[in-house]
Design goal:
The protein is of the alpha+beta class. The chain folds into 2 domains: 38 residues; 98 residues, K homology (KH) domain (GMP Synthetase, Chain A, domain 3, 2-Layer Sandwich). Helix content is 32%, strand content 38%. It contains 3 helices and 6 strands; from the N terminus they run βββαββααβ. Strands 1-2-3 form a 3-stranded antiparallel beta sheet, with no helix packed on it. It has a 3-stranded mixed beta sheet with strand order 4-5-6, covered by helices on one side. A hairpin with a 7-residue loop joins β4 and β5. α1 packs across α2. The N and C termini lie far apart (39 Å).
Length: 138
């Protein structure tokens, strides 16, 4: 797996994935940026959220759950001192569908968190990561 980062202008960069997709990265104006893209630490949260969302959706679909929507909100609390690493991360799932069973959703989230999601496994070695969920019926 590869990625490259290329300066665009000011403090903005293009992040290009090995699969050919790109994203603009920047820093906040108070840090010298122009707010033209995602902050690098936000990318970490997006990566973790995307990784676990894909796992959970695939497991629920494999279990024949009728999922019509899945949303994941990831909230990271950072240290006040440099380096401003994440100290805690909370992942909240909102799963929408018909006849969804809490036990199936809970199991899919646990399997993602403890076995399948590489981002959660890696970050969980240095950050406390918690999860919760809600089910919304169609």
């Amino acid at each position: 797996m590869k990625a490259s980062i290329q300066l665009l202008e000011g403090s903005s960069f293009a992040g290009i994935s090995g699969s050919g997709h790109s994203v603009t990265l920047d820093v906040a104006p108070e840090a010298g940026g122009r707010n033209q893209g995602i902050r690098p630490m936000e990318m970490i949260l997006l990566g973790l959220g995307g990784c676990t969302a894909i796992d959970v959706l695939q497991m629920l679909r494999k279990g024949r759950s009728n999922v019509t929507d899945l949303r994941v909100e990831v909230n990271g609390e950072r240290a006040n001192e440099v380096p401003r690493v994440f100290e805690t991360i909370h992942v909240h799932f909102t799963v929408r569908g018909e006849g969804l069973k809490a036990a199936q959703v809970e199991r899919a989230i646990a399997l993602s968190a403890n076995k399948y999601c590489s981002a959660t496994t890696m970050l969980g070695q240095v950050v406390e990561i918690t999860h919760d969920f809600e089910i919304v019926s169609d």
